[in-house]
Fold these 2 entries.
Entry 1:
Amino acid sequence: MKQTDTKTLILDVAQELIQRLGVNCMSYQDISNSVGIRKASIHTHFPRKDDLLAALLDRYSDRFLRMVDGILASSDTPEVKLRRYCGLFETTLSSGDRDKVCLCAMLGAELKTLNHPLVERVRCFYEANEERLVTLLNDGRADGSFRIDEDVQTTASLIFGLLEGGMLVARVRGGSDQFHQVIEQLMQFIKV
Amino acid sequence: MKQTDTKTLILDVAQELIQRLGVNCMSYQDISNSVGIRKASIHTHFPRKDDLLAALLDRYSDRFLRMVDGILASSDTPEVKLRRYCGLFETTLSSGDRDKVCLCAMLGAELKTLNHPLVERVRCFYEANEERLVTLLNDGRADGSFRIDEDVQTTASLIFGLLEGGMLVARVRGGSDQFHQVIEQLMQFIKV
DNA sequence: GTCTATAGCGCGATAGAC
DNA sequence: GTCTATCGCGCTATAGAC
C-alpha cells in the first residue's frame, strides 16, 4: 500500500485547476499553495510546464478510456451502455464544486494556445472517444435498439460534441440538472 | 459616412483574439501591435480591461441577436429558420483562419476567470438564444414540421449546447465540414 | 528532493509631456 | 488622443545550498 507521492499530488491539483479555470490560469504558484511545496520544487518533478501537461493528459486519457472500455466490455444493453457513457460526463460536472468540466473540454477550447505535442494528445482523446461511440452505436443498430440512418460516424461526433462541448455551456446556465435532461432527450432521439 | 474610429478597431482586434485564443491570452500588447497604437493609448478608450470586455460583449450580443431576430421575423418556414440559425455558428467557424469560435463560447469556457458583470452578460446571451429557439421550436411544432415531445425548453438547450459547445469540439478535429454534417443530422432528429 | 534567491519576461495600469 | 517612461505584480525557469 503505497502512499500518494508528491508527483501524484501535483497532477491532482493541476487537473482540478485546469478543469475549473483553464490551462492559462493554472500556475506553478497555485499548485504550490495547494500541495504545500515551494513552486521551485515542482520543477524537480516536471521541468517545464509542458512536461506537466503532457503527463496530466496521458494519465487522464488512460483513466477515462479505461472506464469507457469497461462500459463497452460489460454485458449491458447498448442503450444502458450509452447512458453509462453519458454518465461519465455528468459525474464530472456534478462532482465537487459543480464547476468542473472534462479536462479535454477545457484544453480543446484553449487549443490554439497549446504547443503541438499537447494538441495531438487532445485530438487523440477526441478520436478515441468517437471510435468507441461508433462501436457502441453499431452494436445498438445491429440489435435494433437504436435508429440511426446511414452515417454512424456523424452520430458519434454529434453525441461527443454535445457531451464534451455541451458541458461547457451547461456550466454557464448553472447546472448538471439541465445537462441531465438534455442527455435524456438525446437518448430519446436515438432510441428506436 | 464616418470612418472606422480607433475604438472600433480595438474592439475588432480584441474580438478576433478572444475568438481564437481565449480571453486570458488577449493582451493590450497584442491589440497594440495589430491596431498600430501604443498600448498605453488603449487605456484612453477602455480604462480597465473589464471595460473593454463589457463593451465587446454588448456589441457582440446586440449584433448576433439582431441577426437571429431577423431570421425569426422572416417569412421562411420553421425548418429553414432553424437551418439559418445554425448557419450563423457555421459561418463563424469557417470564416477567416477557420479557427474562430463564437465569442461567448470561449468566454463560457473561461467563465470562472471572469468577474461578475461579465459572467452575467455571457449568461444573458445564452438565455436570449435559448428563448429564441423556444419560440422557433414552438412555431415548428404548431405547423407540424418538428416532432418534439414535451419539453421544448430542453430541446432548445440541446440545440444551443450542440452549436455553441460543439463548435469548440469541431475545431479540434479540424473542421467546419464535420460540424456541418453534425448539424444536418441534428435536423434529421428534429424534423417530423 | 526540497529549499532560498533571483533572473528575465509580459502583463495591466498610471503619470505626465506634447 | 497619442506618446514615452515607469511602476508593481505574477509568471516560468534556473542556480546553488542543504
Entry 2:
Amino acid sequence: MSQIKETSTNYANKQALADECAEAYAANIMGGQWALVICSWLLNGKLRFGELKKHLPNITERMLTLQLRKLEASHILKRTVYAQVPPRVEYELTAIGYELRPIIKGMEEWGEKHKRVMATQKD
Amino acid sequence: MSQIKETSTNYANKQALADECAEAYAANIMGGQWALVICSWLLNGKLRFGELKKHLPNITERMLTLQLRKLEASHILKRTVYAQVPPRVEYELTAIGYELRPIIKGMEEWGEKHKRVMATQKD
DNA sequence: TATGGTACTATAAAAAATGTAAGTAATGTC
DNA sequence: GACATTACTTACATTTTTTATAGTACCATA
C-alpha cells in the first residue's frame, strides 16, 4: 500500500502519539489529501469508483485507489465487486464510517466560519 | 515556513479542494503530525513553548516551532513574547481556535470507538 | 478483428513533510 | 570570564505523500 518504514522515527512517533491520543489516531486514519472528501461524498450513500472520480475532478486514478484501499483497510468503507464486464465496484461507508458524519459536518462548519474570520483580518 | 511550490499540481489541487470543500480547508489548517495534539493541550489554557515540548515527548524543537508558526499564521493561536531573559513565550488559542473543541473531542471519541471496533475484527 | 468501457496496476519522478544536529542571543549567577 | 536557561534558527538528510504516464483484463458490440 503506502510504503512506511517501520524503523523510521516518524513511524515510531506516529505510533506513540496514536497510542495515547485518540484524536491523533483518528487523524492518521482520516489523513491524506482526499480521504475526508471521499468520506464526505459517501455520506450520501454508496458510489462507484468512476462516480467518485467525477466528484474529485483532479484526482488521479492511482490516488483514488490508494485512498480507497487505505480507508478499506481501516474499515471505514467496504468495497463490493460485481462480477461483470466492464467491472462494477461500489464503495459504501461502514457503520463506524457513517459515524464520522458529525465530525465532518463540524469541520465543514468550522471551516466556513474560519474563512469568514480570516476575511476580516487584514494580514 | 514550509516550502510549498505554488506552481505544483499538489498546491493547485489543495487550493481547488479547499475552495469548494470547507472540510478539506479545515483539514489543511489542522493538518500536520502534531497540530491537533498541540491544540488539544491548549484547550486547557495557555502554555509556554517548553511546557508544550514536555507534553509532546518526541517532538523536536524544529517541528514544534514549525507547527506553532503554522497555527499562528492561521490565527488558531496567538503567541505572546515577554521581554525577559531567558525568554518566555506563551501560546494560547484564539476564539476560533477554541471552537475546535467539539471537533477534537469528537475525533477523540470516534478514535476510541474505532479502536474498539478494530479490536473485534480479526484481520 | 477492432473498439470501448471500467476499475484498476506498475514504475518513476516530483514535491512535501519530518527528523538530525548544531548553533544563536541575552542576561543573571557562580 | 564560564555556564546555565529558554526559545528559538539554520543547514542538511531522510522519509512519506502525491503526481505523471503508461499500461492491463475482461467481454460485448460493431
